[in-house]
Amino acid sequence: MPEKTISIRIDGELVNAREGQSILEAARDHQCEIPTLCYLKGLSSVGACRMCMVELAGTERLLPACTTPVQDGMSLRTKSEKLTLYRRMAVELLLVERRHICSVCVSDGHCELQAMAKSLGITHLRYTYSAGRLPVDMTHPRFVLDHNRCILCTRCVRTCEEVEGASVWEIASRGIHSRIVSDLKDPWGQAHNCTDCGKCVQACPTGALAEKGYGVHQMVKDTDRVSRLALRRASHLGA
Fold first, then answer.
1. pLDDT tens digit sequence for 98-109
2. 83: closest CA among 69, 60, 62, 67?
3. What is the CATH number of domain 5-79?
4. CA-wise closest residue to 6 among 75, 105, 58
């Protein structure tokens, strides 16, 4: 059965979208980039980072573009002073929640959070740091988990479950005490379900998950590879 086509406005331009698409998918189909951190093409969308918030005409509420489906006739704004201020605040809160010291990070220069901060002109933080120094898990023979650099985007969680099918990762605790954990809070090196595939590392937008042996500036992630695998798996399951 052919997909129904509907019409929406994005930043004043009338465009077509497919019924069931998210606002983010429809916008990117028309070369309108909406910033994201937790979204990764091919994985389920969770709206965790709140970077993709957009304005909808007729309401004061901001909507997460990655989890909000398009509706016929909706008029959206993806760029405005209000949205820029909101996104700046969201990034600053992510930065102060952990210890993101870029100058000594393996992903310095290749970090999506760092790039987002630069694009928004963030040069200093208005808020105090929320957490002290957090542990670093070095128990895995190939990889390392640094909680100081994690933004709880859950891309590793969804990649491990939806692409690899191992379900090693999960979020434990609440609020400022939330951490990604492997298996039943076992050290990563003792996680029996881990297949050592490294897909979670490639999906991570920061230096929280990295491969051992890389120095500062060297850890470049291949998120496109994860997306290709996720889309291929979804296509196979839907066949």
1. 989 999 999 999
2. 62
3. 3.10.20.740
4. 75
